[in-house]
Amino acid sequence: MQMLYISLALFLLANLAVGMWRVLRGPGVADRMLAAQLFGTTAVAILLLLAEAAKSNALRDVALVFALLAAVTAVAFVKRAWSMPEARDID
Amino acid sequence: MEALDFALGLFDILLVFLVLSLAWLVMSSEDLFRAIVLFVAFGLLMALVWVRLEAPDIALAEAAIGAGLTGALMMAALDRLSSVKPIQKVAASAQRKQLSLSSKVLPLIALVLIVLGLGYALLSLPEIADGLTPNVKENMAQSGVKNPVTAVLLNFRGYDTLLEMVVLLLALLSVWSLGGERKLSPRSTNPILGSLCRVLVPVLILVSCYLLWVGADAPGGAFQAGSVLGAAGVLLLLSGWHVEQKYLLWPLRFILILGSGVFIIMAAVLLLIQGGLLTYPVAQAGWMILLLESAATLSIGATLAALFLGGVPKSRVDQ
Amino acid sequence: MNSPMIYALLGITLFSVGLYGLIVREHLLRKILALNIMGSGIFLMLVALGKRSAGELPDPVPHAMVITGIVVAVSATALALTLMLKLVEASGSAVLHDAPKDRS
Amino acid sequence: MSWIKGIIPMFMKVLVFALVWWVMTNGALQSWLIGGGAIVLATLAAKKPATHFTIRYFKLVMLIPFFLKQSILGGVDVARRALQPSMPIDPILVECPLRLPPGSPQVFMTNMVSLLPGTLSATLENNRLKMHVLDQQSSYMKDYLLLEEKVAELFSVPVQNTGAGELL
Amino acid sequence: MNWHAWIPLFVVVSSLLPGLIIFGLPEERVGWRTLLNLTGAVIKLLLVSWMIWGVYQGDHFETRLALLPDLDLVLRAGPLSLFFVALSTILWLVTTVYAIGYLEGSPNRSRFFGFFSLCVTATVGVALAGNLITFLLFYELLTLATYPLIVHRGTDTARRAGQTYLRYTIFGGALILLGTVWLYQLTGTLEFTPRGFLSQIDPQHYPALKIIFALLIAGLGVKAALFPLHGWLPQAMVAPAPVSALLHAVAVVKAGAFGIVRVIYDVFGVEFSADLGVTTPLAWIAAFTIIYGSLRALFQDDLKRRLAFSTVSQVSYIALGVAIAGPIATIGGVVHLVHQGLMKITLFFCAGNLAETLGIHKVSEMNGVGRRMPWTMAAFTIGALGMIGAPPVAGFISKWYLGVGALEAGQDWVLLVLMGSSLLNCAYFLPILYSAWFKPTPKSWPEEHHFGRQETAWALLLPPLITALMALAAGLLTGLPFSPLEWAKIIAEREFYQP
Amino acid sequence: MGDLLTDAHWGVLLILLPLFGGLCSFLWPSAVKFIGLATVSAVALSVVGLGDQLLATGVYHHAVGGWGAPLGIDLYADGLSLFMLMVTALVGLGVSIYALDYFDQDEARRFWPLWLLLLGGLNALFLSADIFNLYVTLEIVGLAGVGLASLSGGGAALDGAMRYLMATLLGSLCYLLGVALLYHSAGTVDIPLLAERLESTPPVWAALGLICAGLALKTALFPLHFWLPKAHASASAPVSALLSALVVKASFYIFLRLWLEIFSVRTEGVDDLLGALGMAAIIWGSLQALQQTRLKLMIAYSTVSQVGYLFLVFPLAAIGTFSAWSAVAYLVLSHALAKSAMFLVAGNLMHFGGHDRIADLDRAVQRLPITVGAFALAGVSIMGLPPSGGFIGKWLLLNEALNQGRWDLVFVMMIGGVLAAAYIFKVLGFAFTQAPVTHEPKGVPAVMEWSALLLAVAAIVVGFLASPLMLILGIGETVELMGAGQ
Amino acid sequence: MIDFFSMLFLLAGALFFLAGTVGLLRFPDLYTRLHALTKADNVGLGLMITGLALQAESLSVAGKLVLIWGLVLLAGASVAYLIARGALLRGVLPWKR
């Protein structure tokens, strides 16, 4: 099982690396933000996998905090950062 | 076992590559928002790095701050920046032209040299070094807690933490001394946001308390708890939070200084009783540390939320 | 080379990348980001090298240093951001100009 | 008897938070010293919504299988569309009247819609919900109406029959 | 309590304290200011007299305060110190009286008299300094205290003159500082010692010592107005007349000249300096300055400017006297310290009187002024004749001893210089005297003020008369025990004949 | 009673008192002035207490938490610490008194908490024997400095504060990286233990470079001074005084302390580089000061040049004598006093005339004789003219430079002094002109004039106190270390 | 047996994550990408959590996993709504075939 956890974690990390393309590409701010949200969810999964691999409760706490804080960032984005016109940053 | 190590090694290398390229992209992005989002992602991955380095305490703090609060802070700043000056992009591209080749290439060479030099220095460090691990282990029994990181933070090097609390307060004082009051934003009319906050805020508070409690025995502690509490505050501020003006004067200030204040008073009392700065009696160390941590959590949370607001808070309803 | 060392090297590279950004990039927000990246790099190095201990546990002292460091970094960042906003309000530019400007 | 009506939701909140605490602390006994205070704080922080609805907890439990099924279907649906080389999507923005009263029922409904296969709620205004639909050929409306009824049952409110016909 | 250990300090404080109090006095408290000034001056005079009497009997006056771990602040009353202290003290009293009269009704008098007192304090400190660092301390203080006096009038020319003065003196101060530190580095002491404290030094340091000598002399030469460092002095004559008197006769120029004497006598030692071969170049420079100053004076129409260049020339007699490195020439040089002071202060007082009373600033306006202001011009005449070196005025004594000393030291060329300079002195002073006394009086003066029946105010008239009389007395009564000449002889003896 | 006084934990009090005062003043804004002045006075008294204690017992040593190095943090005070604490208390007291009348109630509410916390941070810094703890104190000092620098508001102040913030954060980070390297090289952050354990290895060299660079940036050593002039010139007067007199010195103190105890034997070449930068700073700073048209900018550039003098000690101290170190300590003291006085003077002039354009200062200069007197006296010390503290420092330094045949240093010091005279008299000259330009005069409170004068007089008076001050400076082990390089 | 099921769940979860990422990259506009994010990833996480919960050493650990999932779900749905609403308000037009 250990091997599976680690391999899956690796797979998810690779997944995340691919998702970075969306952050870079945009085109809108919201698209980038979406990708960041994806990162958050993926990171929670990776953390839980690593936690299970290490039988570490602390890592689950990290995942919990992650899950909560990702929402805070997103709300901050919606409420604050997204006030500029969408056409602003088309590369 | 070999395969496992190989997979972990691959994981490490991919993670290092990702973190590094994120950092580079943050620096090279012309678009500010893109840089910020990349930075948030950078924080996320840093938390994973901490996990890989067997530093769950830091991973918790990074998860709350690096991946959460800093991003929120930056986005809020960007928002206000663009409200002052709507066309950031023009200014940015205008500056791009001014940057000559030499002003970019020379620092780049310097960068490579620094990396090489420091890398050489690192590689010439001894392979195995215990640092202070044996000293910490030896004295854990007298520290009053079971989590070595908490023992270092609140007991062995508690004086540093006292001063760090002052640093935190100073950052806020400096922000406030910049002048300008910030009115609390009006209550959001968005029902979805409202209900999200209604759920998240209590959970954040619970998690904060949990981290505070668990810090004595396992990863967690005042700083992580405070950061999560701060996140709750930020969420409340974002969703519109009505606080009466009278609470924003000295009750708020009281909470803000509670952490450093209790620390200082505790230090002074222990100086009188034990004859040493922050010298806890072994039997009482546990609850004293918990008391300090509780006060610190409240202060950290309040300070971070107030920092997010970025000015002296003012109730929306004034007379 | 073991994995802590890789992370330590990552740490100094982050430090340098941040330094590069701090020097080359002009917008203050990016300078603030650069400082944060530099800080992360240092923290990383501090902790990664703490994993060299012979025992099963990594050195907790750097961990403690870094935790306070992270909280201080965020507060300094908040201060820097607020200062930047105030500066932009006052001068209309998020770039520090070196040209002598007589603002009386 | 009205005070009991006020107590029950409070009691439920405490119960839920206690459960969360228990889960987080792995049931450590000493933790309740702080846990008690934490739960009180959390309960205080959990603000009451503007209008109160009685939740039928039994219905809530019964909703779980439905929800799980729907969300898995939704996941499968979107995964299929994403992974197929032809990428069979035909999105459209539709606006439906919500037959639920404002407040928790509408919020609950809105969030659930996003987890249904092929729909994503986008704007909730004046009792109308704007949805983004991934494939206009799919039978999203049926799921929508079914969900609406289930939510109405959960909050024990009637489905107001206002202009539902205009869509069908 | 040993009073002797404190008297030198009291001498310094006796003008410092009134000065500081005067700064705080409101402008209109004329009475208090005058009282403070005069009290200070009189107390200083009494203390100095006590010391003179004491030293004459072989007493030892020395104040020693720790400045640095191995370096003290030393104020010591030796014959040479007292010689200069006595001059400044007496002339301060006289000049104060004159200044009170001169500045009556003009603005910023508190400031003026405050700095005036500080200036004297610094001068007395320079005189009493018992080692080089103490000397340096007061020497720099003198610079700082004089600057406000030079720019006192606040006009653009005054400020420019002040800046020139500072440029020269700060630079000079830096040179002295460098020389002093270096010297301290080589010897580990800076204590003024008769016949110098360097003769035991390792010969390998001789080149360094030469440079140190050059540094010190150059630094002092700025204030002593040695060519080519004299440029500030003629410009500084824009200052009010009492200041010019102070600069030229009492404080600044004298401090420089006195410093040269100190360095050659008590740091290097005359014989050692001569062995080192540094005195001859100094003598040449001094000689050149004498001629050059006289020549420049010849072509000045502005009276004070002419007097200023005359100072450039006259002060170099002092340097010349000590640089000749013989006992008799030494007497001539040292005694000229006092003689030149008495004569030059007289001349500046008179020039001031002319300017204040009649508005005369130029030589060409002086026709017949002797009949309008006979007393003033009488004093002026005594001063001028003294400068020329005509007996029986004091200047004659100086020149006599210088000439004889030069012959004795085998430096015959000095006689030529002396003669040439005297001739030039005649050339620029005699025409003034001629036109003042013998040319017809013009119908009106440029800007005439009337002072009742006197030719001018008492406070303005008395000081030049007193100083002129003193200059005369110094020439006539050379044999009296406390005459300048006698003291100069004591000083020279100490340098040359004591073991 | 005597025992009580010598046994009391003055060192700890010096840290806790101002921090507590800072918190109180934040909590009770209406009483800030009272709390502030009381705290600063109490701190000054505690410094006296600590001095008394040190004279009796040698060094002060306190293991925080009872753990002791390497696990815990040690507080440590010797002559050098005491000296710096004294400088801080003196300047702090002067500036505090000045600030009583300078700030209106609203500004005072913001000023005092920041200043008291800054004071606490400075004291903690001077008392620390732990390089990580020093980092934390540096952060306190830096952030408080930024807060103070931005206090006066307005574009220029914000611009200056921003530069300062960037510089101080960057400096801290470099320092921290150095600390990290040292910790991992020696397994401790305690200074005495580091001194025992460190060897000349690449990581130690890297740490030396980073720490030096970071601290040089914070100390504004040329060419890393770019942030200083604007930051110091645009802040309000008492703040400029504190920043120039104390904050810059704090990082220099760490520099000095680490150099003395950790790096001294491992540094061929670095010391000459520092010396060269110091020389460049003197010349460049003075020339810049000479060109400024604004008084405060001129004073700020003067700080750049005066900082240069401090760094001349490093090439000289390679051979290691007490007099070189005491020279630099003396320069720190006299510059702190003189420079704070100068900035306060600038504050008075601006208060009076509303501007600080040097060319138009004449009327203000004439109407404020006490203020101008203060400027002149402070100037004497800055120029290094006798009799003043600056002169003694310069004398000792020159002496040492000549002793080692460092003519380059001698030459630069001479030039620096002359240039300093040039820019100071550029201002002083106005005291004597009849000004055609009139200002709308606003009366300057006597407290503001006299506190500036007192600081300036102190800068002169310390010129006569060399012996007792050297005695203080010589307390403790540092002396041995100072002489040990021989 | 448990291992087998949890492995199944985990692999399925990973597949959904992959689908989510592919969707994020391939889908043509913001709204469609939101679909991918809210549904595929949440289901992926849910499946993974189920797989891990099967392995959990105690009920409370499983409970914590479920709690995390619940929070992610709630946040995901709410954030998706907020973003979609924001985009509509700012006039971002949906892509049409």
Principal-axis shape of chain E: globular
Radius of gyration of chain E: 21 Å
Count of helix runs of chain B = 13
Q: Which oligomeric state applies?
A: heteroheptamer
What number of domains of chain B?
2
Percent range of helical residues of chain B: over 70%
- CA-atom Rg of chain B in angstroms: 23 Å
Spell the H/E element sequence of chain B: HHHHHHHHEHHHHHE
How would the global form of chain B be characterised? globular
Report the strand count of chain B: 2
* Biggest pleated sheet of chain E: 2 strands, antiparallel
Structural class of chain E: mainly alpha
Q: Would you count the extended β strands of chain E for me?
A: 2
What is the rounded distance between the termini of chain E? 33 Å
Task: Identify the strand order in the major beta sheet of chain B.
Answer: 1-2
Helix content of chain E: over 70%
Beta-strand content estimate of chain E:
under 5%
Biggest chain pair contact, residues each? B-C, 100 and 77 residues
Mean pLDDT of chain B: 85
The major pleated sheet of chain B works out as: 2 strands, parallel
What are the salient characteristics of this protein?
heteroheptamer, C: 104 residues, mainly alpha, 3 helices, E: 499 residues, two-stranded antiparallel ribbon, cell membrane (chain A)
Can you walk me through this structure?
The structure holds 7 protein chains of 7 kinds. Chain A is an all-alpha fold. In chain A, 80% of the residues lie in helices and 0% in strands. Chain A has 3 helices and no strands. Chain A is flat, with a radius of gyration of 15 Å. Chain A starts with a helix and ends in a 12-residue tail after the last helix. Chain B has helices at 2-28, 32-52, 56-84, 88-98, 101-123, 133-143, 148-156, 158-177, 191-214, 222-239, 245-248, 250-274, 285-309; strands spanning 181-183, 312-314. Chain B has a two-stranded parallel sheet with strand order 1-2. Chain E is built from 20 helices and 2 strands. With 486 residues, chain F is mainly α. Chain F has a domain at 268-486. Helix content of chain F is 77%, strand content 2%. Chain F has a two-stranded antiparallel sheet. The longest helix of chain F is centred in the middle third of the chain and has 33 residues, at 154-186. Chains B and C meet through helix 1, helix 2, helix 3, helix 4 and helix 5 of B and helix 1, helix 2 and helix 3 of C.
